[in-house]
Amino acid sequence: MLSTYVDLSDTVIFFAIPGSSPTFYVYIVLIADYNYRYGHNLIIVYYLVKAPCYMNDTQFRLRPSSFDTLLDLLSETSDPFHERYGKHLSKAQVDELMRPSNETLQEVKNWLNWHGIADPELSTSLDRSIALTVPVFLAETMLNTTYHVFEHAKSQKKTLRTLEYSLPRHLHSHINLVSPTTYFGTTESMRANSFLQSRASGSNLTGDTTPLIGCVDTVAPTCLKDLYNTANYIPTQISRNGIGIPGFIDQYASFSDLTTFTQDFLAPGHQRNLHCEATVVGIQLTCKLDLFCEHLRAGITGGDDGFESFLDWLDFIATVPDDLLPNTFSTSYGDDEQNVPADFAVELCSGFAELGARGARLMFTSGDTGVAGALCETNDGVFRPAFPARQLPLCGGFSNLFARPSYQEDVVSAFLIADGNNNAGLFNTTGRAYPDVAARGQGFQTILDGLVETIDSTAGSSPTFAGVIALLNDFKLAQDGTTLGFLNPLLYANPTALNDITIGTNAGCGASGFDAGVGWDPVTGLGTPDFVELQAII
């Protein structure tokens, strides 16, 4: 007797013959029902070249069974007015919510089996994704698309991608993302937002940690402690509090430079160890911008394929036990939102939500190039939002992809009313507004290859603010044993706990950009941190 699966809406009939070993499947497609779903309107900076016969590493990221529940719980545990505030989920609880249903796993495997890919050829990650290596021609058949080798016009980097792909209709509710497909992230766009200036002639450091006069042109840790009111706080929860810093595009940690930095910039007794974890052996990261955190943990990932590697990092972090998970993450990488396909961006943000549900806080730089983005190019002449920049200036604005969350509504609406018709038509007035907060981004003193370098970049802003959050987590751990987690609702409910910045602009590429003003604005967000004031609201 045959067991039968019939989906008349898709005109697909599937027969499984039980009792056979191995099981045989007959998959009859009465009408090809590939429904176009995934495409990407890319600014073309690539030349198309002929694609040879490649083997293609492909990953199918599956839809979690209870992601909506996870979002609801994240909202409750992050709402300072909710009874569940601060009651973050454990790794085991998150794993259960993020696990795909048995139906999802079986549907996808059945489809792959039908294309001649046997179960032993499939590898799974946390049972959340399925990875396989297939010839390009088979991937093209499966995804109803055509792959090409694209060559970047400036860097000559070649990458195998497609401009659109499709899935059978009955898999739309089971597969969130197929990767790599339409995302063209490279070292050109997935950039480390930093600029090195040459060491000043004759400048030498000693062990003296006294900040330079005025902290105007250069910034050292002591200056930041004074700026953000952390100088008098002594951490007590060092063993269970730390910052994680993921690294990409083949950047790596320099242990010798870290030693030099702590010797030159930090007082004796304040030196910290660097602990590294690898997702791909041999690829590490730079972490020279750690300023006054407690434990520094480096999350190492491989390759230079932009956010493709970020997905690997998120998979790795999902395996980290609760007692080893950093409470705060700082990321000094970004892209322009227009470069990131919608399905890819949503999948990344799902991973960020998973970390937030576990009580971790993620900080992202917003870039250094103003409202026009990194390349000064858009498809339609409007402002170009950054991704996943939601935290720090100088690039500020409004997302074209994500809607504005409720906790932002009051302050952003007030800004839009005050701003009137300025920049009308150049940005999405209903989009998720950024940045959320600000921090110093100029004159950072770092060590590179044993020498002092000065960095002007939001790559310094993000770890600076993350350092303040780490100290707040230390304070909260000492109080009640919990961490802040996703603290945006708390910050937006208490804007006076930050220093409002009212002068400035984020112009770029000839565009006037936005202006800073009283209250939240797309240049400096809610403002810079005041540690003592923030202590008072937690």
Write out key terms for the chains shown.
Peptidase_S8/S53_dom_sf; five-stranded parallel β-sheet; four-stranded antiparallel β-sheet; 12 helices; alpha+beta; disordered N terminus; tripeptidyl-peptidase activity; 538 residues; 2 domains
Percentage of β-strand residues: 15-25%
Alpha-carbon distance between the two ends: 64 Å
CATH topology of the largest domain: Rossmann fold
CATH level-4 homologous superfamily of the largest domain: Peptidase S8/S53 domain
Q: Flag low-confidence runs.
A: 1-32, 187-195, 198-213, 278-303, 368-374, 390-394
* Count of alpha and pi helical runs: 12
Largest sheet: 5 strands, parallel
* CATH classification, class level of the largest domain: Alpha Beta
Average pLDDT number: 77
- The percentage helix is 10-25%
Overview of the structural elements:
InterPro entries: Peptidase_S8/S53_dom_sf, S53_propep, Sedolisin_dom, Tripeptidyl-peptidase_I. This protein is an alpha+beta fold and 538 residues long. It has 2 domains: 3-63 and 100-179, no CATH class; 221-537, 3-Layer(aba) Sandwich (Rossmann fold), CATH 3.40.50.200. 25% of the residues lie in helices and 23% in strands. It has helices at residues 67-78, 91-98, 102-114, 136-143, 221-227, 255-265, 307-317, 342-357, 409-419, 458-480, 488-493, 531-537; strands at residues 3-7, 12-17, 24-29, 34-39, 46-49, 55-62, 123-125, 129-135, 148-152, 158-161, 164-168, 175-179, 191-192, 196-197, 243-247, 274-278, 296-300, 328-331, 333-336, 361-364, 386-387, 397-403, 431-434, 444-448, 451-455, 498-499, 528-529. The protein has a 5-stranded parallel beta sheet, sandwiched between helices. Helix 1 packs across helix 8 and helix 7 (307-317) runs parallel beside helix 8. The protein is globular and about 65 Å long. Residues 1-32, 187-195, 198-213, 278-303, 368-374 and 390-394 have low confidence and may be disordered.
